[in-house]
Each structure stands twice: as C-alpha cells, then as structure tokens.
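Exam revision sheet. Question 4 asks you to relate a sequence to its structure. Input first:
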Amino acid sequence: MRPLQISEETALALSKSLNVPIEQIMHMPQHILLAKLAELEKKEEQD
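Answer key, structure tokens:
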C-alpha cells in the first residue's frame, strides 16, 4: 500500500487532532482515516 497523498502540514494537523503518530497517519488506509475524521466531527458537534 502506498502512503496517502497529503501534504506534510495536513498530516501534522491530522496527527495532532487524532492523537496518532504522523507515521501511522501516512500509512493508514484512506477509508479508516475518513472514518476517524467522521468520529472526530461527531465528537466536536456534541461538545
């Protein structure tokens, strides 16, 4: 599997918001990353 095609700034922002190491973000399958982002969005809406 090839790394995600995202910028370094985007990867750093995702890493901070999801509390996941940047290496894990870069090698995470896209559908899992999208699911985590959806969970984060729901959590922010509830707060």
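Marking note for examiners. The chain has one domain: 8-46.
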